[in-house]
Design brief:
Blueprint lengths: L1 H12 L5 H4 L4 H14 L7 E7 L2 E9 L10 E8 L8 H9 L6 E6 L3 H9 L3 E9 L2 E8 L7
Parallel strand pairs: 3-4
Antiparallel strand pairs: 1-2, 2-3, 4-6, 5-6
Helix pairs in contact: 1-3
Length: 153
Amino acid sequence: MATMHMRSWQEAYRGVMPDRVLDDPGLIEARERFWTTALVDERHRAKRIAVAERDGAVIGVAMAGPPENPESGWSQQLYVLYVLAAEHGTGVGVALLDAVVNPHETVVLWVADPHPRAQAFYRKHGFLPDGTSQVEGGVREIRMMRVTPDPTD
């Protein structure tokens, strides 16, 4: 999972994220710690994690769960959704999104800006920018939200 996560970052963020971050020899160990914590730490118990494989190799990962700020106004946050570039357009990203996000709840995510391919993917699946942005690790990100329609409307 960590190796695939690192490779997808290198594929997706080259030119968006500083090369020193993407080429840092410690990046794989940092991703290993991230996934170990996500999988075994009690604080992450409510999060859903999905892995996509092809021929025994991890080709995509996703993680969603309750927002870090419970007063946020949404019920879920998509924290991770990465698919190797060779698998773009195969349906792997959609399957991972569907595996970790409940379609009947309001969901938010942060996505790099600019990152036209990822933003288009999320727009196609009902996410819209809500006007909020931040800079995280030297990368500008915008927040996108998918609001579930009220069934009584």
